[in-house]
Each structure stands twice: as C-alpha cells, then as structure tokens.
C-alpha cells in the first residue's frame, strides 16, 4: 500500500465554526436527499449520517443552484490538521461550463458570501491551500 500527500488550492473559507453546524445540516437537508438530518436529536448525530461529507454535498448544491461546476468541497483526511473548506477551484478551461468561463472574482465573491451568510459563516473568502493524504 502506498501513501501520497498533495495540496490543492482554492478561493473560499473554512466551512465550520463553533456555531454553524445546525445551519449547515439544515441547508443540506432542505436542498438534498438528506431529509432525515432534520429529525436527528443532536447535530453530531446528523453529522454522522452525512458521513462527514458536508463540504462536498454543499458544493454540489451550490453548483446546481448557480449552474456552475467549479465550486468544490475540500474534505481532508484525518491525518492532517486542515479544516473542511468550501471554495471555488481553479480548473482547466476545457473542464469549465459556459457559466464558469464567465465567472469573475467579483461574481465569485458574491456567490461565496451569499452562501456563507446562509451557512452562518462570517469570514470573508480568501485564497487557501488544503492538504490531503491517502
């Protein structure tokens, strides 16, 4: 078995803070097939149902709503100290749809801030690097 480590960069923010797990889970439940999250007794029970993949699910929802393909959830492995992040990933032009190609930094900021407000995130978007291993 081999082990690899790599770094990916993006423009966005850490997904979780001290107070926003319930907002994140409610957003996912209202916009996806995870309706059972709303019935959980605790936020952490709901988080376990998600299999700790909130970032990817939220990115899929945002991409669908905004008709984009470049919003990405950055979910790191347990071997790093990296936060789960939500951001816009720089990609090759041939991987972009037409809306991605028209996306400006200002529009990206508007989209990220819009969903940050919904998810209870107060940090402004910024460039970040996410460390992965596997």
In words, what does this structure look like?
There is one protein chain. The chain has a four-stranded antiparallel β-sheet. The chain has helices spanning 21-31, 43-49, 54-66, 98-101, 105-119, and strands spanning 5-14, 71-74, 85-88, 126-133. Helix 1 (21-31) crosses helix 3 (54-66). It is globular and about 45 Å long. The chain has one domain (5-20, 55-133). The chain is α+β, with helices and mostly antiparallel strands.
Write the layout of secondary structure elements.
Blueprint lengths: L4 E10 L6 H11 L11 H7 L4 H13 L4 E4 L10 E4 L9 H4 L3 H15 L6 E8 L1
Antiparallel strand pairs: 1-3, 1-4, 2-3
Helix pairs in contact: 1-3
Keyword list:
single chain, 134 residues, four-stranded antiparallel β-sheet
Q: What number of structural domains do the residues give?
A: 1
From the N-terminal CA to the C-terminal CA, the straight-line distance is 10 Å
Percentage of residues in helical conformation? 25-40%
User: Going across the major beta sheet, what is the strand order?
Assistant: 2-3-1-4
Spans where pLDDT lies below 50 across 5 or more residues: none
The largest sheet is: 4 strands, antiparallel
Number of strands: 4
Judging from the principal axes of the Cα atoms, what is the shape?
globular
Sequence of secondary-structure elements: EHHHEEHHE
Kindly estimate the percentage of residues that lie in beta strands according to DSSP: 15-25%
Secondary structure category: alpha+beta
Mean pLDDT, nearest integer?
83
């Amino acid at each position: 078995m081999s082990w690899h480590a790599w770094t990916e960069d993006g423009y966005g923010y850490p997904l979780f803070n001290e107070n926003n797990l319930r907002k994140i889970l409610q957003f996912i439940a209202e916009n996806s097939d995870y309706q059972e999250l709303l019935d959980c007794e605790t936020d952490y029970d709901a988080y376990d149902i998600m299999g700790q993949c909130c970032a990817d699910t939220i990115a899929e929802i945002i991409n669908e709503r905004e008709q984009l393909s470049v919003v990405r959830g950055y979910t790191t492995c347990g071997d790093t100290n990296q936060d789960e992040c939500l951001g816009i990933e720089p990609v090759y032009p041939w991987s972009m749809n037409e809306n991605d190609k028209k996306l400006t930094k200002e529009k990206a900021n508007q989209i990220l801030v819009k969903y940050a407000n919904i998810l209870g995130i107060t940090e402004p978007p910024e460039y970040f690097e996410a460390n992965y291993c596997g």
